[in-house]
Amino acid sequence: MYTRKLIRVLFVAAPLALVAAGCGGGDEQAGDEAGLSGMVSIDGSSTVFPISEAMAEEFQIANPDVRVTVGISGTGGGFKKFCAGETDISNASRPIKPTEIELCAENGVEAMEIPVAWDGLTVVRNPANDWATCMTVDELARLWQPGSTIERWNQIREDWPDEEIVLYGPDTDSGTFDYFTEAIVGEEDASRDDYTASADDNVLVVGVEGDEGSIGYFGFAYYEESSDRLGAVAVDNGNGCVAPARETIENGTYAPLSRPMFIYIKPDALAKPQVRAFVEFYLNNATALVPEVGYVPLATEKYEELLGDLPAAM
To answer: What is the pLDDT of residues 258-308, one digit of tens each?
Structure first.
């Protein structure tokens, strides 16, 4: 599972520095901070969006004078806004790239990385498709690799129907796109481009549901919410077919498509009382809210460590 340092801070003066480990408390709290007001601005990954949206809704109930905005511009688009100083928090379905660290550094922005949940990137098919219930990593790679000439299902396996394949997937600003291409094709950003792309996973759900020959991929929460309308494709990574499920994501058997998800925070934004209160609320309530939106939470003690690793209030 996730083995890197729980929180890392990417400084302007150096590419990477670690925040000293701490041991904070992790008791769940309602977040009812008296007198809190102001804005908390979030943008980025559509995959992480359901978690941050749920957190925002619950936090604002307890703190009605705080407005939390959550946008969807994809992981890459979110980092562009974050590094430009336009947001306090960036949702990300992959770690920040060196080029994004440099962009932040150019603007004097520090980025604190915090893992918040586990996702199982899910390959989905139209429910009329009763043949592609399991595909090997090699088959998925041949289908999605740059220059792929596979256009019909029987080009993947001869006994599959001679029907057109319609492809749906995240756009190139998406962290899900980055992760899938590296995990399946073997090189980040290496993908055929003749597919319907969107930064909004709901658009992809509707697309796959509407085209009988379609196949696509996005975060597990969007599949779980639409499992009555879509079919999942189990993945064979050499050890047999493994379907995406909370258990297989958590125990790591759904490989290579299990992945951590993150939020990135500006350390200086924690000087704003409403931002600090929201981040603390996020970590205190992740164990309860992450499963509600369809993802797998980290161990409770990990969230407690994350709270303890937050820089002290200025």
So the answer is: 999 999 999 999 999 999 999 999 999 999 999 999 999 999 999 999 999
Catalogue all structural domains in the chain, each as residue range(s) with its CATH number.
Answer: 8-118+260-309 (3.40.190.10), 122-256 (3.40.190.10)
Give the angle 56-74-267 at the CA atoms, nearest 5°.
55
Q: Please classify residue 202 by burial: count the beta carbons closer than 10 Å to its beta carbon, then call 0-12 exposed, 13-18 middle and 19+ buried.
A: middle
Residue 228 and residue 103 in contact, taking contact as beta carbons nearer than 8 Å:
no
Whether 82 contacts 43, CB under 8 Å: yes
- Distance CA(42)–CA(58), nearest Å, equals 15
Nearest residue to 269 (alpha-carbon basis) of 26, 39, 46, 81:
39
pLDDT, greater one: 155 or 3: 155
Strands ordered across the beta sheet of 214-218: 196-198, 166-170, 214-218, 122-125, 231-232
* pLDDT at residue 10, rounded to an integer: 53
d(CA 91, CA 93): 7
Query: How many Å separate Cα 48 from the centre of its chain?
Result: 4
CA triplet 15, 260, 142: central angle to 5 degrees? 100
Closest CA to 124 of 227, 268, 245: 227
Average pLDDT of the chain to the nearest whole number:
90
Contacts of 49 (CB under 8 A, 6+ apart): 70, 72, 91
Return the biggest CA–CA distance within the chain.
66
Asked if residues 121 and 219 have their Cβ atoms less than 8 Å apart, the reply is yes
Cα–Cα distance measured from residue 49 to residue 68, given in angstroms and rounded to the nearest whole number: 13
User: What percentage of the chain has pLDDT greater than the value 70?
Assistant: 89
